[in-house]
Request: fold
Amino acid sequence: MNKKLINLMIFSIMLLWAFSSHAADKETLFNELKKHEALSASTWSGLIGKEIKDRILPAPDIIIDYLIKDNQLQGYKEIPHKAEIDDEFFSDIVQAIAELPQSVRDHIHEHLVAVFLVEELGGTGYCELLRDFNKNRLGFIVLDVGSLDRKANEWVSWRENSPFAMKGLYTIEAEIEQKRNDTRMGAIQYILLHEIGHLIGVAKGAHPHWVTGGNPQKWPFTKLSWLTLAVGLKGKSKFDGTFSKRSEIKYYSFENALLTSKEINEIYGHFLKTDFVSLFAATNMYDDFAETYAMYVHVILQNRPWKIRIMKEGKKESEITTPIFDKRCEAKKSYLDKMFR
Reply:
């Protein structure tokens, strides 16, 4: 047996061992998270039923441990830690919730354990459902304080540019508040709506639980756009035949993004031929509902703006305004009309 072949065999064995070890680590983490006490309703019995302002807290150690392990499982490099909260930031969250429509505050009262605050989450927000959700109907939300230390329009522009690396020819300017109302509180409120949408999507039966999964064609909201669900929240949409780069859209990727700023115009051209209300909604079936919920409340119930301006070398190339009213999104708007009616 020649030396090259021996080396190749050794490399193959090492690669197989490394892959098996990695898979085992992933399985161990997954099982730890399923049994984690952060997901037990009894852990939070002292919070349930309190006023919402008493359920906005720096993340306790049990939540930090859960988030660190979840980031490891998902392959995120960030290591979350407890946030130091100033009075003004706390007041912004309380105000953001207080100004929501009563129907949304009812959803919060019925289904939210707490809002936990962290730094270095790896995104802006996070939502998780407690174990035995079908019985307790509860979940918690995590917000990244550092990401939200921006005014609303700055924050949403930052978010909408995040799937595109190599900033250059095209950029995105996004608007969710008029100038006179452009505050940090507005950014906090919008991401809260998105995360609440994740809770409500499962609670109201719009889509399956993301741990147990399920055929999207058997659920009333997801059957509108989604054909299959795969590992890691991936899946095929009805539009993948013509929107082949949809699966490459990764929010909060920035310079590690699979897409570049040169592709912004092309990507949005394909997006406008789908029934997704936003590009974020096109990433997976869970964010599809959460984004639709957030935009519905923000635009229709609160009468606030939602705009995407595609800029080419600093000049407006095109503008997308309140897409939830587009005919292409009619079925999704109708679903939310019925939910809120």
